[in-house]
Amino acid sequence: MDLMSAILEPANLHKAYRRVTRNKGAAGADGMSTGQLKDHLTAHWPALRQQLLDGTYQPQPVRKVDIPKPGGGVRMLGIPTVTDRLIQQAIHQVLSNLYDPHFSPHSYGFRPGRSAAQAVKQARAYMESGRRWVVDMDLEKFFDRVNHDILMSRLARRIKDKTLLRLIRRYLQSGLMDNGISTARTEGTPQGGPLSPLLSNILLDELDQELAKRGHHFCRYADDCNIYVKSKRAGERVLHSITGYLELRLKLKVNHEKSAVARPWTRSFLGYTVCTSKHNIRLRPAAKSIEKLRGGIKSLLRSARGWSISKTVAELAPKLRGWINYFRHVDVKGVLEALDGWLRRRHLRKILWRQWKPYARARMLMRLGLVSLMDSYHRLKCAS
Length: 384
Hints:
four-stranded mixed beta sheet, single chain, four-stranded antiparallel beta sheet
């Protein structure tokens, strides 16, 4: 069976449909929601399937969406239509089975059974082995600058189904819809569709293989790549050499301002950083991660005027639960305790204080078991 037929197998399509509808997501350029997809497929799938088999299917333009980045600037997303998300997801499932077993064990992003936590723990293991310098490489606008010809040549090494190769190239070249105007694309694979993460791993696997061939110790998560070495001088050689490889071989641009050879505890990797003693390397959330959480909490609470404390807690809980789940591997528990104290002292207690009637505040403090009533009253009054 050729790959295109495997992609269009009912079992594979049903799995892709469940994934797309479960993820929901914004509508594409045609305005169709995931809730409308079933009726659309019922009416049009036989024709769409035949177009896919005979190679005449034309993907629709992706809808451009700019989202702010934590460090400033914007990240461009390209949102495909739900029909194209279904087809891309079906392609992803088949190609992932084909490619993933051959990917480097040092690649952690967008792969089944792999996670950012595993990458961070492996990075710590490198530091504990004595590699306490990091080559922190930043690829400038990676997803926007993928060279189509180079990516297609790498795909053609393993994929022999020409109909599928043509379809993937059409997805790469499908227009970018912005304010009703579609612009042709000659490079890049914008984030937002199910296929882009896999294509990025296929292209960057060549970097992984080159690093492994040179004997380097590294972790890569999507376009985030850290190489761990034993000296600054070695790191500078590696940065110069790998920059040349990326720019000449893969036509990718390294951001020289953001890339550096430095001590790991002065940098962050996937939201984490480390603190160190002579023998121990301990994980902790990076300062930017903490500030981003605080900013999100402050923004939510600014819009929470008039909410009850129970509603406020209900709104905060998913945000806090997700953050704690991601950073559950930290070894420095004092950071989490400080955040907990900041949230309770600076926000939740203030909400309660403002909700109490002025004449009832003393009684409420006593009910909560505060013994030194006047001291507590004065302290909370000053805080408000």
